[in-house]
Specification:
- By secondary structure, this protein is of the alpha+beta class.
- It contains five helices and ten strands.
- The strands form two sheets. Strands 3, 4, 5, 6, 7, 8, 9 and 10 form an eight-stranded mixed β-sheet that branches. Strands 1-2 form a two-stranded antiparallel sheet.
- The radius of gyration is 16 Å and the shape is globular.
């Protein structure tokens, strides 16, 4: 298994203001003879139909469009905002914790007719120290939200990576046009 990682740095920006949430770390990993690239949620921006989630690393960034509620959840998880009452992803996390499970990783593994597909890999360990790995199909938006919430890595298959358009310039241009880092996530 080969891995290359760069230093993590964060710039923050939020949904309700003219700002984004950024996180960057790069890497490539060979998993079960299939190359995947480690990515992070680089930014979440509201759109007229929901949210644009910018996903990528230092080499490339692409966009997955998600509904407003999941976009808001991803942003809250990135900012570690506590909610008065649990949201759907919180409920799922509580249920998984009660069962001794956690998100191990997420893989955005396919792109067909402009629709992304993802798998969430869940690691379970019970009170007898018995371990199990479960792989589930899921909407990329939900998988990304769960990975962000549980601080699990997100990967993109090499095939998807090669197919998506690089939106790094769009993200960079938005930063240059006055989007400022969120002070609470600056280091």
């Amino acid at each position: 298994m080969q891995a290359r990682f760069n230093k993590i740095f964060a710039l923050g920006i939020g949904l309700k203001s003219a700002s984004l949430v950024f996180h960057v770390r790069t890497g490539t990993v060979d998993v079960m003879n299939k190359t995947v690239i480690e990515v992070q949620v680089r930014a979440v921006l509201p759109t007229s139909g929901g949210c644009a989630v910018f996903i990528g690393n230092n080499d490339k960034v692409f966009i997955i469009y998600v509904d407003q509620t999941v976009g808001s959840a991803i942003t809250m998880f990135m900012r570690q905002i506590t909610k008065e009452r649990p949201l759907t992803h919180d409920l799922m996390a509580h249920l998984m914790t009660a069962l001794g499970a956690k998100v191990d990783r997420v893989i955005i593994n396919d792109l067909k007719n402009a629709t992304y597909y993802a798998r969430v890999i869940i690691r379970v360990e019970n009170e007898l120290q018995q371990k199990k790995i479960i792989e589930l199909d899921g909407r990329p938006s939900d998988c990304i939200a769960m990975a962000t919430q549980q601080k699990a890595p997100i990967y993109v298959s090499q095939e998807v990576w090669d197919e998506v358009d690089d939106m790094s310039d769009v993200l960079r241009k938005m930063e240059e046009e006055g989007l400022k880092p969120d002070p609470e996530t600056e280091e």
